Amino acid sequence: MDTKILDWHSQAKTCKLDGRAFIDGRRLAAIDGKTFDCVSPIDAKILTQVSRCQTADVDLAVKVARTAFNDGRWSRQSPAERKRVLQKWAEKILAAREELALLETLDMGKPIKWSLSVDVPAAARCIQWYAEALDKIYDEIAPTAHNALALIQREAMGVVGCIVPWNYPMIMSAWKLGPALASGNSVVLKPSEKSPLTAMRLAELGLEAGLPSGVLNVVPGFGQEAGEALALHMDVDAIGFTGSTRVGRKMLEYSGQSNLKRVFNELGGKSANIIFADFEDLDRAAKTAAGSMFFNQGESCNAPSRLLVQEEIADAFIEKVASQAPQHAPGDPLDVNTIMGALVDESQLRTVMSYIEAGNAQGAKCIVGGTQARIESGGFYVNPTIFDRVNNDMKIAREEIFGPVLSVIRFKTEEQAIAMANDSSYGLQAGVWSSNINRAHRVARALKVGTVHVNQYDDDDITVPFGGYKQSGNGRDKSLHAFEKYTELKTTWLRIEAA
């Protein structure tokens, strides 16, 4: 990747921002003309006005998507042709990486360093991977009696609604658009109102790559308006949702109130990161514990926000983790050296500060941070925060904070660590650090989560599924398993008559 240093502040001043929806291959204002302010968390200044799509706009987008699906302009293209278009789209995303990275940073507050080196290439890689995969998935023939032939095929569902969160706007969009479009569906994408800008630009790039108009439509707006209208729509066949468990429950309700559309929820987490005293490289474990927690300002559903440390090493290990905090001090997101930026908006800032207050009130010991940062900027920043002496019943240990707040919980035995880790309504991810391979396997098997990281945290690849157990939802993004969310199984049974 080109690593040239740009003056990102100058780039921001000349960046063209377009907040209009993208429907039927065109940028459109909302039908009623309503907009909402797109505010940058960097300095709380208004970036642009965004179309406030509501029921009428969603109806239009779904109608356009259904027409595109039914006439076969995409759904009936050969796998080879769909592959070619998606590959071209991935190339265009990479070619526009500086523009997309700047939009992401201005809109969401993450450091330009990560928008450029992580988010853009990950989105392109996802689209490229599903392009490569789509013509390598074979259908089946069932082992029936000799006088029958049963063909089992995967078919596109039709119109898919994708609702994505604000913390990784491009990556989360790509995780859903890749398999949904590769399967031949038409899509209506609803980005978060907190970070909508890259979604519309991605759709434009898809059109330039050859994606037919109407196949991918983007309806920005508020969740209770555009999101609800999409989830309740009688002509939407499936919803792929990533967001909070609270809203995930609503998605299931909307399905029951409408056409029983498929709903695939990828929801929150409160991941436990378990450090056993026998792990040999505690310096690496401490660096990873801090880095994976404070990355993306802690605004990650898989953030290891519960740090479980075995009692005999607790004091020394916590000191090692705390020593990492200054490296993650919030900085200017447009500075290439910054590694932690702003929280997404003022509401999230208030939420995070309320959890810090709750931790103090319930008797946890705040040993690092606990305060706002860069107040003079006007933006929304919180210093990396570590609480020691947390017990698993405290609010900061039970609820997803979505901010840079780490809760340290001490344990004595392996059995106690497993019980604490599983004592959560969530089951997204976990970490296990031990130099005893038997213990690592034993604990990994006992944890009720979708992914267990062993002696690392956050290693990742598009080839492995992402999702969780319990109230972390039923959705699985990434890998070949994602195709299961956006296709229907059809059996065609043929009777073979005797000669």
Describe it for me?
The protein has 499 residues and is of the alpha/beta class. Helices cover 37% and strands 20% of the residues. It has 15 helices and 23 strands. It has helices spanning 8-14, 55-70, 79-95, 97-108, 112-133, 169-182, 197-209, 223-232, 245-257, 282-294, 314-324, 346-361, 395-398, 414-422, 437-446, and strands at residues 21-23, 26-28, 35-39, 46-51, 140-141, 148-156, 159-163, 186-190, 216-218, 238-242, 262-266, 272-275, 306-310, 365-368, 372-373, 381-382, 385-388, 405-411, 426-427, 429-433, 451-454, 469-470, 487-495. A 7-stranded mixed sheet has the order 14-17-18-13-12-20-21, sandwiched between helices. It has a 5-stranded parallel sheet with strand order 9-8-7-10-11, sandwiched between helices. A 3-stranded antiparallel sheet has the order 5-6-23, with no helix packed on it. The protein is globular, with a radius of gyration of 23 Å. The termini are far apart. The model has no long low-confidence stretch (mean pLDDT 97).
